[in-house]
Amino acid sequence: MTLLDRGALPESIHMGEQQAVLKLYRQRRHITEAVAALEPYGVSSLVRERLVTILDEHDGRELYRFNPRLMATHLQLPEREMLGILVMGLKEGIFTLNWEIQCPICQSIDFRPKHLHDLQTLHTCPVCHSIHTTDADEQVRITFSLDERLRKLEPNTDDPDFRARMDRRYGVVSGHRMLTLQTFRDLFPRETLPPSESLQIRRVAILFTDLTGSTALYSRRGDARAFDLVRQHFNLLFQLVDENNGVVVKTIGDAVMGAFTNPADALQAAIAMHRKLAILNQDLALPPEDHLILKVGIDVGPCICVTLNDRPDYFGITVNTAARVQATSTGNAIAITDALVNDRSVADTLRDCTWQRRDLLLKGLDAPVMVHYIFPNAIDNSAQRVEPT
What we know:
The chain is an alpha+beta fold. The chain contains 13 helices and 13 strands.
């Protein structure tokens, strides 16, 4: 006799089974309705359908404090796109975000922080009571959980051994990666550190850009027409920073400051900026004197992340060096330091470029800095000579 042979089963079992089926139906409906809220963000119907199935049917251990890379594998999505969808889901009440701190001494994980503003410069481990600097690259990590209003997860869901296996398999997503996700900054602008606190950043690529001759451009074109060109340049740069896994930290006049966890992404973004601006100049049929010419500088190294003007910002020698290096370019060149040139992640990209280099004493820095001027092959090198400073 099978469960489908309902006539042979007691009525109490029939009712219990019906209630269970009804409960599952309601759960599926609630999850489907919640995930539908992702459509206005541009999430495809195929991804939404797959996500509904995962949230409704998968092992609860994969939905509680789960590694974003595990979900990316299930949905067959790049990490950046997956993180964006999770942040959108966070905004729509589908997921909750967990900021976790792993002690560098005993390796235990502190689950107490609920928001970015719960993090402090110094962290005390609740297990071994050691005190250490809060490192956004190595100690702070992020996970997500399915909101319990959509599905009540099984009692065995909180499984540290399972999470540890997933982390070993896929690698953790650092808290710093979330800080360099443009979608997170756009949707949660109030998610910041306390004003008096900071996070240690072991390694970040800082990119600065500036337009050459913008003052003369305003003089020739007038404020309104010149600003329209500058606005289009901003829109293009913002898009390229995001597409290359970076975040726009801020704008300063006509300049843009961006941050990237992967140095190769910063260099690819800079190359794309030059190439796309050259295309924009052609599309707008601008005369040569009005061409939007970009100066770019990049440095890689440690710094600190703080809250300034109600948003995350970066400070330190790496930031200062990137800004000074950018100022040495006369345009149409990407000025980078030894730290970037020697990074393994950029080796393939540099093989496709030509460059010059000079040893310069930069303002505010005690020791000379070797500055490399990169000229992507797709750019007309006739206008890429770097004048002595």
